[in-house]
Amino acid sequence: MTVELYASEFPHSYRSLSTRGFYLRFVVAVALVLAASVFRYGWNAVANIVVAVVTTVVLDGGIASLSRRANASSDVLFSALVLCALLPPATPWSVVSIGCVVIVLVGKWTFGGVGSYWMHPAILAYVVIVLSGKGAFESWFVVPRTWPSTAVDWSATELINVYLFGTVGAVVDVGWLDLLFGNVPGPLGGTVIVTLFAGLFLMAEDVIPATFPALFAIGMVAVLLLGGSQEVFTTVFSGQVALAAFFLVPEPVSRAKTYLGLALVPLFAGAISGVFTLVGMGGASPIYGTAVVNGFTPLIDSLAGREYIRSIDEIDE
Amino acid sequence: MIPARRKHRVRPLSEGRHPEPGYWNAAVPSICVVPLQQHHGSRVHPVVAVGDTVREGTVIGTGTGRFSSLVHAPIPGKVLQIGEIPMPDERSSVAVSIELAGEFDCLGKVPAAHPWNELEQEEILRLIEEGGVVATGRGLLPLHTLLRRRHRENRARIVLDVAQSEPYVHSELEAAIASPHKTVEAIEILRVALGAERAVIAVNSARRRRTRQLRREAAARGIATVRVAPAYPADLDYQLANAAFGERLPARSLAIDRGIHIINATTAIAVHDAVVFRTPQIDRVVTVAGDAVVRPATVKARVGTSVGDLIDECGGLSSRPARIVMGGSLTGREVTNINAPITKGTASILALSDSEIHRAPALPCVGCGACLRSCPVSLDPVFLVRLIQAGAAGQAVRAGIDSCVECGLCSHVCPSRVPLTEAIRAARAERNRSAS
To answer: Can you tell me the ipTM of this complex?
Structure first.
């Protein structure tokens, strides 16, 4: 009998998106946002982006090859680019490189590499930079090159107010187009319309569900309205909110796992961002709000998945 | 007990080009290699010798014990060889190789229909046993064995499963659509055989239009139809029991434990042929699909036809396939020799191209939760695999490893290509081995 059959394991087809694939799409999306920032802030932005990419790739690649562990370096590359987008445009490149070291060493490898960390490394690095650079941080904000042209003379405005209070409308009279096109001082990746396009790209590629940014915005708007804020529109239409909704909350490793968790985490992140805005934490409120919820995501997940956990307890009995 | 079974929300999986509707009879091969072990259960032994002449439908293999089934010659001819061959499910089987010669007794002839309404339960079961009918899709056990299993508390009920939710596989649907009268009459026969009071047909809600005739025939005989979601998996025991009779099955229990018999369409048609025409199960409706096949289609082929012959029947290969699979793309087995024969349980042959497989290097789990959300029985596959890797078999059992239905969905959706189903399956197999 010459017939032979060889058994192999299943399945024989996989979902088209691999881990490297979806991180690559994240990198493309955030790179799109940063490309717009180059137009606004010139070579300073380019220098920071290059420093971030080089530091991250070299350090992460070195650690991965030394430890001989399977690695997807696009995950920290994504985090490094998100950090660049979150930081003010005039952040010194040395600070950016320190942030990237934090991303790779503390954010990723301290917890055991790709998939093992519980907090978005970019948020961790951002918090470290804000805490260590207190005082200098506010001075890194600069006036962007505006497009389409705006009548607002930003040079006569105290930029610190924009950052500290995050309420652009209260400082100067700007239109919604100015907000959309990022004609306000803010983080490097503050061009809201480009971030929205990048978000649409991620949703079209099935990398993030549309519910993430929607629930984040709903949570934030609800809290701002309940808190009696007069600047709901200008607050929600900021670059930081867009970055948080599209690049911080949906980060694959640190986001929720359960269906309920996936709904609750962006909702809570938006709501807490709204609370932080109301108590005067300024334009970075969405990042701090996301950071807090990011830290509690495992807890939210375990509460959201309690039906399953209870069933295991029943078995133990 | 694990009561948590959430509503399954995974979207229908992609399956390349759709096979054309309907099926045709494949050319009869000049040589059939018929594995005798086409079902789980007792070992089947050959009752013919090399050089014997067999007719179409002659018994060539028989087993002993309750869980045995007869195997019949799919073609008339001469026995060329008898020997051991490996089977796709890692077992081996004695196979009888038959070279086509002589006249067909069934092919091209209108079989005489025998009235069955007057038959007793036991007589019907005997005819099913003599027909060598195997319950395809549900454990591949001899059907007469399953039908003889009586439940003390629950009256028998029947679900005809036409849903067949696994990507690429359309054989049950096409068989039922092509023979609606036979299918519905088979349910009537099974109702008598089981003394069943209720019977329901489960169809995929995305195939409403194509199953219209089947549903009409069923309605005319008082058989209800229920729709199941066009997702995978949608025809697990607990899903069908719930959809058909609103019954919630406890974890790890099968529908048959509650007296619910889930029968596939091809099995039902084989029952009809065995009881009404007194012809044995010697052919199988098989979907031949995948992007590497020139003309994806469903064909009816003799058991023992080779995979290569079936691919040729569908126009051959348009490109070099990345993988040839016997069964569905998620639960099937890879075949590396296209001379491998089909059995009564083969639902599909897939020649998958690279663009359908989506190969990627394996990475550590990124904790995205895709497997957790996709599991139809609410398990946490990564948690189970970590327990297995840590050698905590007892904890894995408590965490519900025995509830896994091995649908392969967790591995399919994993972006890091962590072999979750494989690890769970290997752990269970290892435990069964050490227990036995």
So the answer is: 0.81
